[in-house]
Amino acid sequence: MSGHKKKTVHIPKPCRDYAKKFEDQTLIHEVNDRIEQKLSQILTEQKLYYREGQNFYSLDGSYFTRIRPENERILAGKLLQETYYLERKEARSRADYRKLSKDLLSCAEKTLRSRLASGQTCKELPVVGGLTVEQVSRLCAMVIARGIYEDYAARLHTDQVLLWLSQNRGCKEILYIQTKAAMLNEIPKDYTLLYPLAREMKRHFILHVGDTNTGKTYDAVQELMHAQSGVYLAPLRLLALEIQEKMLDAGVNCSMITGEEEDIREGATHMASTVEMLSLERSYDVCVIDEAQMIEDEYRGWAWTSAIMGVRAKRIHVCMSENARKIVTLLIENCHDTYEVQEHVRETELVFQSNKFHFPEDVRSHDALVVFSRREVLRTAAELEHLGYRPSAIYGALPYSVRKEEMRKFLDGETDIVVSTDAIGMGINLPIRRIVFLQSTKYDGKHTRYLKGPEVKQIAGRAGRKGMYDEGYVISAMDIGLMRHALYEPYEDIRRAGIQIPQKLFDLDMKLSEIILRWSQIEDTGIYRKAETEHTYQMCLWMEKHCPFEKATMWRLLSIPYDESSQKQEKLWKQLCELLYMGRPIYEGYEENLSDKTDLNSLEEDYRILDLYYSFTRAVGYDCQEFKRVIVETKEVVAEEIAAQLKDNKRSNASLCRSCGTSLPWGYPYRLCNDCFARAHHSIGRSKPYHSRRRS
Predict the structure, then answer these.
(1) What distances in angstroms separate CA 323 from CA 125, 230, 268, 489, 491, one per listed residue?
(2) What is the mean pLDDT of the chain?
(3) For strand 55-59 and strand 64-67, is the pairing parallel, antiparallel, or unpaired?
(4) pLDDT band at 9 (very low <50, low <70, confident <90, very high)
(5) DSSP secondary structure letters along 382-435
(6) Which of 456, 509, 550, 687 has the highest Cβ tally under 10 A?
(7) Any bridge partners for residue 231, and if so which?
């Protein structure tokens, strides 16, 4: 009987070295720092995932939720599961790998036990039914240890590690470790090094910190106007246009550029633009970065991070609310720049009125009524006009010229009420005495939720314009206690700054879609959080299949702004990409893409279609001045038609009984008034309409 020959397994030397170093305590300090970072991240997000048998659950502080298996890939980097290669390394007794893994886990548990003993972590850890704090802390220790372990595996001599892993049948992690190692080699540990031109300068920051309507932007723009050269960076194109107009009125030659339009003036010394359009190559004397609290936004926050770390200006004014102070100063300190802080305080007191607001009987002159959808703006304005009021309507989809005209009417007394979405929160300085929240919830693109404290403060701060009123008032039609608390609760510091994928990663020998995917799977560390890339990734996959440009061109096209929720706009974007790839004129089908309808919905969609055409032509350097001229002229015509339709819609959107024409109460969910319904259905004896009678 012949015995089986025992297979000799060679453990790569780097792995033995790491295990030995850990045993000799040479890595303890580095690992402890990493443990603290990861623990802070866990306590901040309070959301972990773990595996139990074949099921995945989330641990979020209150309950367990099963995660569907098909979502496992999406949760990469957050999933607390035994990954295949970790299981193999431990199960097959690869001594040095196993020892390193156990040492890391032991170190993480020791750190957690120490914090539990001191009473720090015990208060912060999620409390979950059925689990003790010690069990939760062990789950935290596992995810901390494995995260550090993955990084070490990626940073080892990759060729040797991959050779060893390839000897394990069915190993699915070779590509993962390989691509992660390649990315880690390209990404500096210090993100400020991604902006070498700015690092060559000595920059000084002036931080304007305060609530809405405290003069932050005004003070910052004053120095900008008197500088030899400068740039203003806005969160919205409407603000960029407004600042350009102020500059021009003051005799400062100022150009303007946003994602959808541009006005480049010969000899201009200043620029007003949206923050995403900042040129990191051009230098300025003064820069103003407005609304910097948006640095935490999961989609656009990266632009503020990039501006703060990368703008080439000697003096930089940053305007922000209190909650952004710490994160912004930390970024500046990381850049080794200097800064000073200027506190801005409201000179008009903001008072919350505790009585419930009843619409429309409690409406007063110089009220601003706030709702959170275009439809509700039009319905509310229509009802007010039906009752004899003169309302201005403001919402995000309005062209700048139309919105400016609505504001002018209110300023000049042609209208006495403003009905607006939360678009009123930024850059609108009107003589508003009272902010009225008709709604306390909003749909944020994913789900309907209650307003957050910073949102309430931003909008409410528009009440009580300085120089006109001694006090500003805030009142709510619903959830009075919640809204009062949101207005007065202390700010919670922003802990993360958004970052975008470093373009130097495009040099890696991978498809752009693979780079985007792998970048999204790298764990967020320190104060940085990667921008949301799911839609970009899906569009990149489509582009690689239908029009595979080189990577820099694809990224430029993927960065063109449009409404991702609009199927018509996405279809047009794809059509333009295909025309460009085939070398055909991108104005093919131009007229067919515009509607021949004249209702407000169609006109607003046409305006956004024209925006997309203009953005695309500029992004790809399309040299057809005649086509650009046609776009600009058509936008002006559409804007005029929108203004006319808006005036008509204030009347036509009134909530009237479809039978007798009686005005229905605001928010009334049916199409018939109670009297008409009772007459139509008296034989049945119902007191309320059928559900089928409800508005859609």
Answers:
(1) 23, 27, 35, 12, 5
(2) 79
(3) antiparallel
(4) very low
(5) HHHHHTT--EEEE-TTS-HHHHHHHHHHHHTTS--EEEE-GGGGSS------EE
(6) 456
(7) 271, 287
Strand ranges, E, within 239-296: 254-257, 262-263, 270-274, 283-289
Cα separation, 573 vs 610, in Å, equals 12
Q: What tokens does 630 get?
A: 């046609």
Range 339-345 average pLDDT: 95
Question: 182 phi and psi, to 5 degrees?
Answer: -60, -40
| CB burial string 295-325: b at 16+ within 10 A, e below | bbbeebbbbbbbbbbbbbbebbbbbbbbbbb
Q: Please give the share of the chain, as a percent, with pLDDT higher than 90.
A: 43
* 5 DSSP assignment: P
- What integer is the mean pLDDT of 380-384? 89
Task: Report the C-alpha gap between 287 and 275 in whole angstroms.
Answer: 11
CA–CA separation, 654 and 382 (whole Å): 4
Ramachandran category for residue 405: left, alpha or beta (phi over 0 → left; psi -120 to 50 → alpha): alpha
Mean pLDDT of the region 201-229: 94
Q: Which band of pLDDT confidence, cut at 50, 70 and 90, is reported for residue 507?
A: confident
Q: How far apart are the first and last CA of the chain?
A: 82
Q: Give me the numbers of helices (H) and strands (E) for the chain, helices first please.
A: 24, 21
- pTM exceeds cut of 0.90: no
| Residue percentage of the chain with pLDDT more than 70 | 71
| CA 256/CA 131 separation, integer angstroms | 57
CB neighbours of residue 183 within 10 Å: 20
Q: Which residues contact 424 (CB under 8 A, 6 or more apart)?
A: 368, 370, 394, 418, 459, 462
Q: Tell me the two tokens of residue 353.
A: 């009125």
CA dist., res. 427 & res. 417, Å (int): 18
Of 308, 77, 326, whose CA–CA distance to 191 is shortest? 308
Whether the link from the prior residue into 360 is cis, omega within 30° of 0, is: yes
